[in-house]
Fold these 4 entries.
Entry 1:
Amino acid sequence: MSAPEASQMGSKLDEDHVPETNGRMAVCRRCGFRTDGTTGAAHAPMDGQEAKATRWLDGQAKANRVAKARGMLGS
C-alpha cells in the first residue's frame, strides 16, 4: 500500500470509529491497526494492511446492518 492509500485507509478507519489506545502503544484497541501515536488521534495503517483493513471495515458494516435489522424486528 502506498502512502496515499495508507492515508486513505486510515481516514476510512477514522470515519468508522475514533481510535482507542491504551496510552502506551500506538495501536487501536478496537481494530488493531496502528495509530499516529500513543494518544491515538488518527489511524495510520502500515504498508500491506489494506486488504485486512478492508475486510475489517466490511465486517463492521455487516455487523451494523445486522444490528439495525434486529432493532427493527424487535420494535
Entry 2:
Amino acid sequence: MNAKEELLNELEGEMPLCAYLGYAEYSDVSKTILLKKGYTQKDWNNFLAQLDFEYDDGYGTQHLFGTVWISETIWMDRYEYDGSESWQWLTCPEIPEELL
C-alpha cells in the first residue's frame, strides 16, 4: 500500500488542519511526519512527498501511526485491529443539553 495514496483517498478532497504521523517498519517508530497548523502549499507538498512510500498493509504489525486533524472537532486516527490497520474518523460529541 502507498501511504500517500491511502491518505488522499481517505481524505476525499478534504484539506487537513494539521497532522502528526509516524512510520514503524518493525516495532520502533523510525520516521515522524508532521504537518503544522497554518501550513503552506510547499509544506503540504513536502508532507505528501514524505508519505510517498509503500508499506505492507496486510495482517501483522501496524506500520503507520498517528492523527490527522480535519478541524477542531473532527479528526482521523490510525488504528490496528486484529492485525489490519486503517483510518477511523472521529468527532467530538455534542455537549448534552443537561450539561449546558
Entry 3:
Amino acid sequence: MNISINPCPEDKRCECCGKHISQLKPFGKEGDPLVGNFEGALLLKTFRTLFPRDKELDKELDKLDEEFKPNNYECYEEKLIEVYGKERADKITFYEQAVNTVGASWECRDCICLGDEEYFKVMVSKRKNG
C-alpha cells in the first residue's frame, strides 16, 4: 500500500493556468523563481485565499471598523445588519470568511509567483476558455 499525504492533482495540471505537466518547464535551483532548491519539480504546492479581495468593499469595511471600535458594539454582525441590512450583511460575512480562508493549490513555475489579483485573473480566463 502506498500512501501520499501531499499528492499532486490527479489530472497532473497546474491548478491556476491548467497546463499539463508535459507542457511545463521544470523549476530550477534556488532563485528560479523561488528561494529554495526545487530543481526538476513541475508543480509545487502553495496556499492561496479562496476568493479575490474587493478593494472598494475592503475600504468600506475598514471605515466601518473604525466606526465600530469607538461605539463598542457587542457584535460586529449587529453593526453590519444595522448598516447594510440582513441580506447584504450575510454576503459581507461570507466574503470576509472566503478572503480569509486559504486552500492548497498546485502551481507551475509561471503561476506560483503571481500575486493574488493576477492569480484570479488567470483562473477566470482559464474557466472562460474551457
Entry 4:
Amino acid sequence: MLTPGSTLNLAAPCLPHGISEEFFFWPIVAFRQVTLRTDDGEEVDAVWVVYKREERAIAVVGAAERLVAVDPSPETDDPDWIDSAFVITDEDGFVLRANPGASCLWQRNIARVRV
C-alpha cells in the first residue's frame, strides 16, 4: 500500500512533452483513492498521487494501470494534462473511455475539470 514517503515506480510511461519520468522516484506526499466512471457508466478505481521533491510537486491520476492525467504544477491554477486516448471531460469531471485508443494523446485540460 502506498503511503506518504513511499515511492511508486512505473515502467517508463508516456508523459506529456517536457515532463520527465524522474518524478516517479520522488517521495509521495499525498495519495487518495478515487472512483471514476466510464462513458458507458461503469465505475473504475483510480488513484490521485502527489510527488514532491524540494519545492517542486507533480500530481498524477492513474486508472486501470494507465496514467490518465498529469499536473506539473498542482499548486497553481495552470491546466493539467490529460491523455485524451483514455479520458474525456464533462461537467461532472473526468470520464474514462470504455474503449480507449492508443495512448500518448496528451492535451491541456483547458476546462480545468478535476477528478
